[in-house]
Amino acid sequence: MNGIIIHPSYFVDVIALVHIHKSSSLVLETQDSYVKQTYRNRTYIAAANGKLALNIPIIHQKKGGSVPYHSIEIDHSQNWATTHLKSIKSAYYSSPYFEYYQDDLEMLFKDIPTSLMEWNIKTLYFLLEHLQLHREIKRTQQYQNDPLAKRLIDAKDKPVMCLTQYIQVFQEKHGFTQPLSGLDVLFNLGPAAGAFLKSQSR
């Protein structure tokens, strides 16, 4: 197994988790520039009305030139966190394992840092812990320009792989939905999520 580089994203999606599961170590790209239309400030969940985007508002810096990702701050003047937590609860309350992880999820949302990158890293650690994906994790010291990492963070590009279907809460209504936040596989599969990630072919 080899290591993998990823850009920290908001509740990293299931496809990225497949790649992490098949890697021996994880390197967080922390020297990149902030790019719009990526998973840096959004994630998707399967809600009652279909695929729902959860977007984190950011404080926009001066125009012109690239802006370091690590310098981006969350706009806490907007009540986004409460809205996101309510949306997650509404979407997954009837899932098999939501109640098992609910308290830890609520605790996570009680301590949100100012830095978007650091918040994303906290959500990554949350998923890795509960999915029991124990990996050595390091941060880059200089920008790596990794092609796979750039594809995995791109919210508009075609997914790098197709997942085998697993049971989702609103699957009968909307069909199998991907790519979604890692929360989806955690709440729907619980302890079996690791075996699912292992079974997928990259």
Keywords:
202 residues; 8 helices; alpha/beta; three-stranded parallel β-sheet
Task: Please explain how this structure is put together.
This protein is an alpha/beta fold and 202 residues long. It has 8 helices and 5 strands, in the order E-H-E-E-E-H-H-H-E-H-H-H-H. The chain has a 3-stranded parallel sheet with strand order 1-2-5. A two-stranded antiparallel sheet has the order 3-4. Strand 1 (4-6), helix 1 (14-21) and strand 2 form a beta-alpha-beta unit. It is globular, with a radius of gyration of 16 Å.
Radius of gyration: 16 Å
Question: Pairing-aware structural class of the strands and helices?
Answer: alpha/beta
How far apart the termini lie comes to 13 Å
Low-confidence stretches: none
Largest sheet: 3 strands, parallel
Please give the order of strands in the largest beta sheet: 1-2-5
Which strand-content bin applies to the residues? 5-15%
Global outline: globular
The portion of residues assigned to helices is: 25-40%
Task: Compute the average pLDDT.
Answer: 94
Order of helices and strands: EHEEEHHHEHHHH
Number of helices: 8
Number of strands: 5
